[in-house]
Amino acid sequence: MKYQPVIGLEVHVQLLTDTKIFCGCSTKFGAEPNSQTCPVCLGLPGALPVLNKKVVEFAIKAGLSTNCSITPRSIFARKNYFYPDLPKGYQISQFEDPICQHGWLDIAVDGDTVKRIGITRIHMEEDAGKLVHGELSGPGDGSGVDLNRACTPLLEVVSEPDLRTSDEAVTYLKQLHQIVTWLGICDGNMEEGSFRCDANVSVMPVGSNTLGTRAEIKNVNSFKFVKQAIEYEIQRQIDLIEDGGTVVQETRLFDPNSGTTRSMRSKEEAHDYRYFPDPDLVPLVISDEWINRSRQELPELPEQRRQRFMDELGLPLYDAEVLTASRALADYFEAGIAAHSNAKAVGNWIMGEITRALNDSGTAIEACPIAPGQLAELLTLIDNGTISGKIAKTVFDEMWRSGKAPQVIVEEQGLVQVSDGDAIERMIDEIMAANAGQVDEYRSGKEKVFGFFVGQVMKASKGKANPSVVNELLLGKLKG
Amino acid sequence: MEMTVTDVEYVARLARLELSLKEKELFAGQMGAILGYVEKLKELNTDGIVPTSHAVPMENSFREDIVFSPIGLEKALANAPDRAGSFFAVPKVIE
Fold first, then answer.
1. Strands (E), A206-275
2. Sign of CA dihedral A301, A303, A308, A314
3. Which of A22, A34, A71, A290 to mutate to test the interface with B (most CBs of B within 10 A)?
4. Exposure winner among A122, A339, A383, A444, fewest CB in 10 A?
5. Confidence label for A266 from pLDDT (cuts 50, 70 and 90)
6. How far, in Å, CA of A14 to CA of A207, rounded?
7. Do B64 and A131 touch (CB under 8 A)?
8. Of A194, A176, A189, the residue nearest A63 (C-alpha)
9. What is the least distance, in Å, from the CA of B16 to any CA of chain A?
10. In this predicted complex, what is the ipTM?
11. CA dist., res. A427 & res. A440, Å (int)
């Protein structure tokens, strides 16, 4: 039998606020355990949570950027369960009436087909604390609880089960990742858990209308693992069914070392969360004015910018996609074209030399030592014939190292291109005299030798000879 | 409204409570009486009435995103039954 996988993703987005969602404790990563806590996030009796306004603003932005409608009146609910990292015995979340609903993202599948992936809801909630095992300074072999992370603001973005392959899931996830980092509401760091994904996976016979029983896979903290985990889980379920077994609804943990998933805890029983409205938090009412204000504050989103780069600057799709990989990169590009009119050339240098140098040195574009304006100056030096494209790479490397302006480097190192015909002619004469054999070869029809002569002239001029002048003169002389 | 011992056991497990059979029977009767009382409300016609989520007519109470000083590690751990360094110490939990 052929099977159709069905996948839905639940993504937790940690918000880039300075403080927690319901108290003023810092959210800074890496502090001493339990040093960033207060009665609210410790869950002490009588403490009163108060909603961080910025969390709401971020949630609205995320909703508007994913085509959601913003719920005019939403409430917070208590999700009740016991776990040592949850001090109150309940998590404050949203259940009925989440802040954003009914959105979608359009993703590209198989090249140019566009597929719409529904977003059921986006809700606000608090994170739990962190459990550590086996690294305690005290005696015993228990676990340790660090509540610094407790009450950190999260958005949970729940997709419809519209995804059909692991590739679609990764594409959707990358697009969502790009949007939240672009908006500046999440740092997107998957390793540190700022952007984490649970995948709901089931399979059903092709042509069936009834969804199979799903398993929820947790702990997939990279795009690569999402793909691996989903593919493993699909195959596991198919094998299970083929062998006459049945899939049970459960939570499974992905193990990145083996690339497999294993059962974590049965979800069949005890998952009765008894949600009810949290009486400590008053309803959240969002006016049309507020929504409109947020809409006006939204930056131009990656998709819109990509389209503009293609329509207005005539960039090919590939270039437009690469240059909008992050907002900072797109901003860099735009600053570059503000100082240099050839968008394609600026783009090529950013996608080529700049990206290579950033990768080699592990530098982020935000910290690029070459300002966009300086890159534009370098391109201008090529355009007006001051330096050749080849020398430009040397100048670029020096700019990267020293931070000096390209003009300064060219002058200091005497890199100005030699376009003077007489000087080049003299070099050619000397080279032809010293390589009479190759001259004869060329004249007897072996035109490939031409490249040898170009190389010799460039060498003699230390790369400074103007290549088109060299070609022209050389051709004339060799033809005799 | 009828509450059985099984119902009480289910709720007790969710609340991590251990009850004797005598207690279960006692609570089944008491909880049944409470639910029966609430059940009376169903006799009212509530068509078109928005469910009340909060008793106080208030909305939009916010704080700004400004860091305040934490209470400090020692105070945070002061009530803990057990600690290990800067952590709350709990029995081993591993998934």
1. 215-220, 250-255, 260-266
2. positive
3. A34
4. A444
5. low
6. 38
7. no
8. A176
9. 8
10. 0.90
11. 18
3-state secondary structure of A199: strand
pLDDT for the residue numbered A151: 97
Q: What does the alpha-carbon distance between residue A278 and residue A265 come to, in Å, rounded to a whole number?
A: 27
pTM of the model: 0.83
Structure-token match 């005299």, residue found: A433
User: Domain ranges in chain A?
Assistant: 3-291, 300-412, 421-479
The verdict on a CB contact (< 8 Å) between B89 and A140 is: yes
CA–chain centroid gap for B40, Å, is: 24
- The rounded mean pLDDT for chain A is 90
Contact B93 A84 (CB under 8 A): yes
Residue with structure tokens 């959105």? Answer: A103
DSSP-assigned letter for residue A460: H
User: Which residues face A13 on adjacent strands?
Assistant: A155, A195
Residues A332, A372: contact at Cβ < 8 Å? yes
Domain at B5-43, CATH class: mainly alpha
> What contacts B56, CB < 8 A, 6 or more positions away?
A282
Chain A: give the shortest CA distance to residue B53, in Å. 6
Q: Give the residue among A104, A65, A54, A101 at the shortest CA–CA distance from A299.
A: A65
Listed by start position, the domains of chain B span 5-43
Question: What backbone phi and psi angles, to 5 degrees, belong to A113?
Answer: -75, 135
- Chain B contact set for A52 (CB, 8 A): 62-65
- Rounded to an integer, the average pLDDT of B69-87 is 91
* Contact (CB, 8 A) for A136 and B91: no
- Yes or no: domain A421-479 corresponds to CATH 1.20.1530.20: no
Question: Do residues A181 and A168 make contact, with C-beta atoms less than 8 angstroms apart?
Answer: no
Whether residue B61 and residue A144 make contact (CB cut-off 8 A), yes or no, is no
| A contact residues 268-327, partner B, Cβ 8 Å cutoff | 270, 272, 274, 277, 279, 281-285
Instruction: Note the pLDDT tens digit of each residue in A191-213.
Output: 888 999 999 999 999 988 888 99
What is the identity of the amino acid at B47?
D
Query: CA A196 to CA A223: how far, in whole Å?
Result: 10
Please check whether residue A204 is in contact with residue A6, taking contact to mean a CB–CB distance below 8 angstroms.
yes
